[in-house]
Amino acid sequence: MAPLKEHIATKTQQRSASDLWGPAPYAVIVVDRTGTVRDLNPAATSLLGGAAPGAALSDAAPSWLARAHEETTNSADRPAGDTPVTAPSPPVFRGRIGARSFEAHPAPAPDGDGGVVWWLVDDTDRRLVEEELATERERTAFLAEASNVLLASLNTDRCMHVTAQLASQYLAEAALVIVPAAGRKLPMTYAVEGGAAVRRTVTADTALVPGLSEALQGFPPVPSRWIDPASLPDWLIPEGFTGTVGSASVTPLPGHGVPAGVLVLLRGTASTEFSENEEVFARLFAARAGAALSAARLYAEQSDITRTLMRDLLPPRLDRVNGVEFAGGYQPAAARDRVGGDFYDVHPGSTPDEASLAVLGDVCGKGLDAAVLTGKIRNTLQALTPMAGDHEGMLRLLNGALLNSHHTRFATLVLASVRREENRVRLRLTSAGHPAPLVIRNDGRVEEIDTRGTLVGALPHIEARTVETELLPGETCLLYTDGVTEARGGPLGDELFGEERLMRAMAECAGMPGAAVVERVQMLASQWLHDGRHDDMALVAITAPPTTHLSAVNGHTRGRYTQ
Amino acid sequence: MTDQHCPPFTLEVEAGPGAVRLRLGGDLDYDTSEQLVERAQACLAADPAPQTLVLDCSGLRMCDSSGVSALLLIHRGTSPGGVVLQLLNAPRFLLRTLEVTGIRHLFVLDGADAQGERAQDGPPPVPSG
Fold first, then answer.
1. Smallest CA–CA separation between A549 and chain B, in Å?
2. pLDDT (tens digit, 9 = 90+) per residue, A46-56?
3. Architecture of domain A129-308
4. Nearest CB to B65: which of A362, A436, A459?
5. What are A415-445's pLDDT values in tens digits?
6. Would you call B72 an interface residue with chain A, using a CB distance cutoff of 8 Å?
7. For residues A93 and A360, what is the distance between their CA atoms, to the nearest angstrom?
8. Closest residue of A to B128, CA-based?
9. What is the CATH number of domain A315-550?
10. SS3 of A90, please?
């Protein structure tokens, strides 16, 4: 023991604890090494309910203090050699006395006989603050996690699932997310104790649940103590929720200006009721869930609209029409725009002898604007199909329909009237400001069809020249958009694919089926690309099917061809 | 190879007596054509209006369908007032585009490339009717 303390101890030896520690702001108990209370100050007397000197500590004080005393005196009995040179900071013991909690700090008693002076420091307030801080931290972490999980998805179902699941894990035993009904049915998702969320629709009257119909309209929540758990309808109690509902809270999920839904929290009778603090916290969580849910709903609505609009704009599947092979290929510039500025269509002739009309075109611009203009052109051309005998007249009518004083958004296109004649295919081709069609002959020559004309949709007067040609069995006419020839890439990364390269590639395709020509050109253009970015690419191959002549049996008729 | 450090599109205006010259550089495409149209329309709206609008295309690297649309829109602004719309030093790819789309006759073309192209191509196509 330090000499200084010894000195103080000698001086104060004769004075009682109440004199010595009476004015101390803490309860002080002096206990000797046998566990008998030797002295108390008035604060300690009132704290321990009138314990007096001479009583055993185990009787006068809670058991945790008696145990702490035993531990302290035992460690003090150890031989001096065991004690480290630098004395460790004295241990602190904690426990409750009555409704409050205390820290007990031991100090050697001044009698020098191994007794201990216990200072009891009330730490209830500090402990409460610390607990509150821990709760706050936990909530912040929970909200951060909730935001992360909720914002990771733009899917309404997934958002509802996550909301129900998180709420049932942290806020209550069971949680239901109810979204405003589309009709009479109320879509809801529930989860019990953090388990997997379940989706259900119920036909129910929301007026039966206090605050529910108001919350669905976005009105502020009703305090949970106003909700009588016994009055809740059965459909609101999720399967898997055992026991009876002790308390319920109904919180609106605020969306972007409109209510996104309602979060209903249920607790069993065994749990505590919702405190005001917890309801505020539930609202904080609901704000995040509501934002995520309404973003997901807006996105879902938007993509529904886009899907509806786009359904008609997708390029058609092409096949054999009236004895002529048609094959198409389309690669939109960006994978997410399934439709773009390029298009093609084949309008079959009503009889095998009537020409079919194939159209391939490219609309200026990109995105939805281009897609809408594309739709307009395709519809107009379909309506004008009966006029297909006069391509130029058709283009003039189309041009008139598209002219607009606000912009010069134009289209370039190729019209091809296609008719099978015996084993050959007759073609009438007209370009309206579009790259000329190419024909692969059976001997490997590639011909550019010399049709020229003005683009449509921007100028009051247009001109066009129609050219006729014929395909022998196995020969293919290819219509393409400039996305193919303007694919930028190659070994140096900045060269255009170009017409010459396209023609060389096609020369190697002599005699191949149309679909194979389309695939081959698409593949080469894609390989050519430097960084994968390209404009829309569309291709249509018109092929005269390879045939074998069946000679006429009697030698008088012309005979027939297979296929 | 293009110089990666070049700005994607540049536009310089030189106003002279009776004529305005716009010097185009870089890529005229979906993102940049609106800028050209706005500038050209502002020049045409000036008082007194120029008699000639010259688009110097010598620095042009690329012109897509939006660029063609922009040229058509500028033409729409010049033709009613009788303003001459001249494309100076049009690169080969631009002439090719104007040729294919059938709108070459709308512009007064000048410059070495244009002369060469014209000599090679012969007279403009005549529609068969």
1. 36
2. 888 877 888 88
3. 2-Layer Sandwich (3.30)
4. A362
5. 999 999 989 999 999 999 999 999 999 999 9
6. yes
7. 87
8. A465
9. 3.60.40.10
10. coil
